[in-house]
Design goal:
The complex is a heterodimer of chains A (about 375) and B (about 260). Chain A has a single domain, classed as ABC transporter involved in vitamin B12 uptake, BtuC (Orthogonal Bundle), CATH 1.10.3470. In chain A, about 75% of the residues lie in helices and about 0% in strands. Chain B is built from nine helices and twelve strands. In chain B, the strands form three sheets. In chain B, strands 6-7-8-3-9-10 form a six-stranded mixed sheet, with helices on both faces. Classes of the chains: A mainly alpha (about 375), B alpha/beta (about 260).
Amino acid sequence: MDRGRKGYDTIMNMQSELVKNRRKNAAALVLLSAAVIVLAFVCLFVGSSHMTVAECFAALAKQGSAAQVRIIWNIRIPRVLAAIIAGAGLSVAGLIMQTDLNNPMASPSTLGVSNAAVFGANLSIIAFAGGFLDTGNHLSSYTVGANPYATSLMAFLFSTLSILLILGLCRLRAFQPGVVVLAGIAIGSVWTAATTILQFYATDVGLSAAVIWTFGDLGRATYRTDLIMAAAVAVGLVFFSLMSWRFNALLSGDAAAKSMGVAVDRLRFLSMLLASVITAVCVSFLGIIGFVGIICPHVTKKLLGQDHRVSIPASALSGSILLLLADTLSRSIGNGSALPVGAITSLLGAPFFLAIIFGRKGEHD
Amino acid sequence: MLEIKNLSFRYASRSPLVLDGVDLTLKDGEIGILLGKNGSGKTTLFKTILGIRKPDGGSIRFDGEDLLKMSRRERARRIAYVPQSIHFGALSVFDTVLMGRVSYFGYKAGREDEAAVEAILRDMRLEELAARNVEELSGGERQKIAIARALAQEPRLLVFDEPTGNLDIANEQLILSEARRVAAEKGIGILTSLHDLNQALDLGGRFFFMKEGKIRFAGGPEIVNESVIREIYDAEVRVLDIEGKKIVINRNGGQKT
């Protein structure tokens, strides 16, 4: 009787502990979501036109001067949405790459996506002066271009080429994580070399336009680019979330995951393809935004564990938070012109990241 | 239950055969122990059974069905694996064991999956660890969690790769008695590789001695003798019979491990 009672107690205990764990995770996700919403508003209120909070609210309700309404609705909202979408996308892409490749150093650009995008954009800007057919070399072409999407399109085309090249090569042999990483490094360096050669022949104006493109700027976002990024990120988030248990199984190694019924090679191929496409879309529209995909997933995993049911949404939210913070900061200290947001994400994220890795006891203690 | 015939495997087209005409059968609830030197083909044999490697020839049947044509999920519901080096990722013990049911639930674990995991944890007296981070547990505890996860697959056959390799003697005994219990109580077949001949004799069951990709000797404990061990391991030992129990010791007096 006593033993039965004790057994019953331990089971109730086990359930209450598990419920406590789940509540903690749910609370963390709610907190992160709230932070995204609050920061989105803060980000909306900060800018070079120095509008007051009341003016911003009025403009948000489309009551205010026409200029203020335009600033909020045509400039700041697309920018805030871009920060939320691209932050989430890059962060989750990084998390999935790290799980897929069993490598903490893996990033959204492991398949050479960013290097290829830079080459594509450079080709568009330097060789075609921002538009496909315009070969003239005058400043107006660099700012307006024959087609506003030409540079993004070229960046995207070359990133996709890079992804397909590496995944195709790896498909030929068994999908070994080490091989994928090395192939990414090799192909990435080819794009970098090609970019260097291209830049060597560029004019001063072309070169500076090409370099500025790589800086990463959320100001390039429009509702249309936001929609395209949102579509890619949403497809990725849904797919990754559905595969949460399979990713969890992958943490136990390929052999164990296969023995539990997970089609490891297929999962790895599809998820790396999706993560890379998300990265390619974001980078093509916004330029290079580094480190979000490394810092955010690591911080989330350290604080909330590696269960992908939690780490996927938590990484997405923390990515949005970091990019919102970085963008707000880049516009407040830039004195009228925003500093490159990619640099701010690293400046902001790296100390926090270091504090997390050195501040907590790791598994290698 | 498990019927392997004339199985062969090589890693590359011109490399030597790692499995060379392996025949092996195992009945429900039977314990099969694979013995042999490192590189004799034990782990490769496991990998072909688990579908991790595709054999070059021969057949593997499970209850009369062709295992090589089964989908990964169908196979996972019949055969589970406890790997040699165990790492899980920072998950709770409960979720780690629940993961074993992924071939049943697919995308989202249901109430019945959680109930199955609760029953297994209770059965193995692991319920107090349920909410703990599995990465923080000791080697022996993790090995038990790996067994619990394998049992969550509700398999008919459990494959162990060197289950006692990294454990102290107390945990060794614990894991082997767990294997024995699972075979006896649940009628689950066990296929395991072991290095320690005395452990193998202690566990009992059918012995399969492998050398150079072939099964050279198969049978009960009675086949374990000095000449078989010399042939398989190139080692000189003495096999003693103490109170009806066989013990293998080194020729020079120390115990052979």
